[in-house]
Amino acid sequence: MVPDPTPEALLEHADWVAALAARLVSDPAQADDLVQTTWLEALKSRPGEIRNPRAWLGAVVRNAARQWRRGEDRRRRREESAAEREAWPSAAELVERANLQREVVGRVVDLDEPYRTTVLLRFFEGLPQREIAVRMDCPVATVNTRLQRALARLRERLDTDYGDRSTWSAALLPLLALAGPRAARVALPAGA
């Protein structure tokens, strides 16, 4: 029968335990924590018989590293989940944004013709100016002029009502996404 090694006999392997911990984790502070966990475990729960102290200590270090990684993975997932929930808008913000979108859409519908149809075809149907020109039987330049004038009128009315353009223009982003990336590139610089 192999006698139970004394703490002093186990400590003879201290440099080897530290080197193994440093190889298992990249952070020197975490390697120190693994070494401390290993010695705590060695003092607390040594089996009655250890044939190879280095092998037993190695298993303890590897288990501690495995548990640390699992804990880090759980912590990372919790933090990501919490950050994701924080990024979600509140119900009140969603209602406010929806109401603002309704206001903006109402302003578009209130435009005089042919501006209303031009804006609806461009930003709600996502049609390019050429297609709108064909449908409305007019030159592309006329479609562009109508869009510019309609957007100027909308900006003027919304600026008057809301003051801060960033407030109402942010509400349009979901609507522009429906119209497609080209519409967004055209309308966003225009403040629409």
Provide a short characterization of the protein structure.
This protein is mostly helical.
Quick check: average pLDDT? 81
Sheet with the most strands, sense and barrel status: none
Regions with pLDDT < 50 over 5+ consecutive residues? 182-192
Strand content: under 5%
Distance between the termini: 85 Å
Q: Mind telling me the C-alpha Rg?
A: 34 Å
Please tally the β strands and state the result: 0
Number of alpha- plus pi-helical segments: 11
List the quaternary state of the chains.
single chain
Shape summary: rod-shaped
The percentage helix is over 70%
SSE topology string: HHHHHHHHHHH
Coarse structural class: mainly alpha
